[in-house]
Backbone:
């Protein structure tokens, strides 16, 4: 029964997210509202980790599978894509590599400089 | 036989799941980044549909029950995020800086390349939200007057590409911190990248989940400004 109860909670939060999506006129999907609601519920203690943990873990584990139908849908958008496919492919490859490198590098530099500052502070104090 | 397969309520779901399972086996055997289970599954399902001459809409009649779980699964990404909240608080500045830089890099690079390839305004705004999660990206594309079907296609290709090249890019640019890896995956290739981040580790997965939401929201604001630049 544990899984059923956890699944009910997760679906209920998704439903609440859907409700917010309809009520607030912004291009933000139900899933993002739901993610924020779930995080708030866990932080405030309305939900305990043990009330969702196992089912959440299962759903996250099988998540890649859920993208297959949308990805196969590329079959149908091929005709729309065909006239500009070369620039689109080049832009997609270049920007994806760039965004990944920039995000990773900036984060890493900031984490490491923070750590050094803290270390220096530490040696000063001793 | 063909009409039976096309009308079946289970065919599309079975083919999709079996193709993914085959993808997992193939990766285990060869251990190559290009042999990504999602990529293998997508290509094999496409091949099956073309071979058996089944329309995508007929396949999706049953496969959509798999997609149905996507919203609850995204909601669940809050769980690993919650478990890493302490780490997030400790590195708040770096996390905020990294995601903001990534979103700006995405918008600026699409602008520059769109000018370089002399795309039309319509094609440019179609590509602007390419790095963020499908649902938000579709909304932005629609609002700015882009071509939604192409936006969705590009978002999915970006996701799969990010998922496949993540190891290579992290090695090439010496990105070693788990937090940095996670944010890079989530900011560059949304939920499909996050699926990869989850495989790398708990911290990577949690940070990638965070990046989906934050990068998505920042892009809503950023894209409306960048749309006026071309």
Residues:
């Amino acid at each position: 029964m544990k899984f059923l109860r956890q699944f009910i909670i997760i679906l209920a939060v998704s439903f609440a997210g859907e409700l917010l999506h309809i009520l607030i006129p912004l291009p933000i999907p139900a899933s993002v509202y739901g993610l924020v609601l779930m995080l708030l519920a866990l932080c405030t203690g309305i939900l305990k980790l043990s009330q969702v943990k196992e089912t959440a873990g299962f759903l996250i584990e099988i998540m890649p599978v859920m993208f297959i139908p949308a990805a196969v849908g590329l079959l149908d958008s091929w005709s729309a894509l065909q006239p500009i496919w070369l620039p689109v492919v080049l832009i997609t490859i270049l920007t994806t590599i760039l965004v990944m490198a920039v995000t990773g590098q900036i984060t890493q530099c900031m984490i490491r400089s923070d750590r050094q500052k803290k270390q220096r502070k530490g040696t000063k104090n001793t | 036989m063909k009409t039976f397969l096309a009308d079946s309520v289970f065919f599309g779901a079975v083919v999709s799941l079996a193709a993914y399972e085959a993808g997992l086996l193939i990766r285990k055997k060869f251990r190559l980044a290009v042999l990504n289970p999602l990529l293998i599954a997508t290509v094999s399902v496409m091949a099956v549909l073309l071979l058996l001459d089944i329309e995508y809409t007929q396949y999706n009649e049953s496969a959509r029950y798999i997609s149905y779980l996507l919203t609850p699964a995204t909601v669940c990404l809050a769980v690993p995020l919650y478990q890493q909240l302490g780490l997030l608080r400790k590195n708040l500045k770096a996390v905020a800086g990294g995601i903001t830089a990534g979103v700006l890099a995405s918008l600026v690079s699409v602008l520059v390349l769109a000018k370089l390839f002399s795309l039309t305004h319509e094609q440019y705004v179609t590509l602007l939200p390419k790095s963020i999660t499908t649902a938000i990206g579709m909304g932005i594309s629609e609002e700015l007057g882009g071509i939604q079907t192409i936006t969705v296609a590009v978002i999915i290709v970006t996701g799969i590409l990010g998922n496949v090249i993540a190891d290579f890019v992290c090695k090439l640019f010496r990105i070693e911190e788990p937090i940095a890896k996670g944010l890079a995956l989530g900011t560059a290739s949304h939920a499909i990248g996050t699926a990869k981040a989850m495989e790398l580790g708990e911290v990577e997965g949690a940070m990638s989940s965070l990046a989906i939401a934050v990068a998505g929201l920042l892009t809503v604001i950023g894209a409306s400004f960048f749309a006026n630049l071309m």
About this structure: The helical segments of chain A are 2-23, 30-44, 53-61, 68-72, 74-81, 85-125. The two ends of chain A are 55 Å apart (CA to CA). Chain A has a mean pLDDT of 91.
